[in-house]
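Reviewer 2 asked us to include a model.

Predict the structure of this chain.
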Amino acid sequence: MFRRISTLISILLSILVVSADEPIMNMMPRWDNGWGLQLIDEYRHESDLLLGKSTAYRGFTEDVHLLHLQGVYTWDRSIRLTYKLPYVLDARREMPDNLGGKLVEHDSGIGDATLALPLKKYFNLDGRSGSWGFKPMLRVPLAGEDSYKIYDNEWGGGLGLSYDFETSRLAFLSSASFWFFGNEKPNENKFSLDLGYKFYPLGTNSQILWETDFLLKDNGTENLLAGPALYWNINDLTHIRLEWKHDFYSKQGKLDHGNGDRILLSLGLVY
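Predicted model (structure tokens):
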């Protein structure tokens, strides 16, 4: 019995992702020679400085404001090329200065780019349609070196798996991504599960989702974030998405910030 339960858990974990992680909002385009652009305005606030699961320095905050430029091109609906280019508009963190006070550090500028080649296998069943996905990924260092940096300026390789389906009223999105880095940056595993309800205001296509993300690094870091999201497909060409996630569980493998929230507002255009 224990072996069967362990096997079931392994299978479930193998299909869990950060959904809406691929442009355009993990939704479009789904036709040959389609392309799209997406802008994401992200703000996150971390309340404390943690070591392990303990608060090492309460009230030592970190605030990060990012702008993400993302794009996608589809040769046909099953083969895509995507890119992600983040830009740090402003980042500020408070660290101990070893004299009983706070040292305030800042960062800004371009971040590390990500290239991916998502491959999808679509299916249509009675009352349900969806896809399986596999994607190789490449992280390209562009951030530069600094004492405080949001991005790590390191090469990395990754693999992603995904499974999603939808009915006329329900949506299910899941995936897992695995990142491998060669130098000081720890390897990362990311899992996510999103459940959504579909509705159609004024003849448009919308979804309300509850999203759950889990991040695991090989230095012992574990983070569980969850929260609601609203997706609005206005006319198949214009897409808007608003999401909020709260850090429900934080364990830091090194002295780092946690116990926070993040808000993302996305605008996507496809042709």
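The longest strand covers residues 238-270. The helical segments are 2-15. We have added this to the supplementary material.
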